[in-house]
Amino acid sequence: MLQPIAPPPFNLQWGFSTRAESPFFMPSRLLSQVHGTRVLEASDQLQEGDGLWTMEPGRFIGVRVADCTPILLAGPIGERPWVAALHAGWRGAVGALGEPGILRNALGIFRNLGGKPWDLIWALGPALQACHFEVGEEVVEAARRDPAWREDLAKPGPGGRPHLDLAAFLKSQALDLGLDPAKDGSLSRCTRCEGDIFYSYRGGDLKERQWGWVRID
Ligand SMILES: [Zn+2]
Fold first, then answer.
1. How far does residue 125's CA lie from ligand 1's centre (Å)?
2. Nearest 5°: CA angle at 25, between 81 and 28?
3. CA 198, 21, 7: angle at the middle one, nearest 5?
4. Which residues fall inside 5 Å of ion ligand 1, going by CB?
5. I need a labelling partner for 54 at 20 to 30 A (CA). Which of 63, 82, 138, 201 fits?
């Protein structure tokens, strides 16, 4: 189990699982993930979306990933803790059909509830990094619609096709949304480079996933 490298803002448990962790200790599956941008308040029901949030102590929430980026967020709303877990591949980060991406949606919810983005501790977990994230030109085209896009976030790879730095793109979005760079607890670990530690879809793990999870104590 890996932890975000920034201390949480209140008492909570959180982490990014690896191949070594038993699924038995992971959250119940509450999301039917569709590579979209919908972020939902967690309930006992299985819902279709790619992010969950909760303010309920003891509720164990998470997202399942293998190459996509798990994102954990934790911050206060007044005196009360708020946490979220998001699943962001390039589709979720970019947002389909001109919609905002999933991180933008999550921050919209936090702000509407009265939270201040600067207060959030935020962490991107193990995911496919730029070394292995070859994409089509249409992905770069789609990402250009985001106000936080910069041209240096995609560079031609050895095969000639672009390699996307999804983590750097998500960080650029985070700063654009008013998050504090000093509260960034991200781990820069590549699921494909470290296939012995992490599940990687592109590395052949078509079914199994690791979790990014969080629970308010
Ligand atoms: Zn890699």
1. 14
2. 65
3. 85
4. 129, 131-132, 190, 192-193
5. 201
Between the CA of 196 and the centroid of ligand 1 the distance, in Å, is 12
- Where does 113-154 have alpha helices with state H? 137-143
CA atoms within 13 A on the CB side of 72: 35
Categorize the per-residue pLDDT at 99 as very low, low, confident or very high, splitting at 50, 70 and 90.
confident
Task: Find the distance separating the first CA and the last CA of the chain, reported in whole Å.
Answer: 18
- As a whole number, mean pLDDT of residues 36-42 equals 97
**Contact (Cβ atoms closer than 8 angstroms) between residue 212 and residue 63:** yes
From ligand 1's centre to the CA of 189, what distance in Å?
A: 8
How far apart are alpha carbons 194 and 124 in whole angstroms?
A: 16
> Considering only the top CATH level, what class is 12-128+184-216?
alpha beta
Determine the distance separating the centroid of ligand 1 and the alpha carbon of 62, expressed in angstroms: 24
Give me ligand 1 centre to Cα 76, in Å.
Answer: 34
Question: In 3D, which of 14, 1, 47, 41 has the Cα closest to residue 216?
Answer: 14
Determine phi and psi for 50, rounding to 5 degrees. Answer: -130, 10
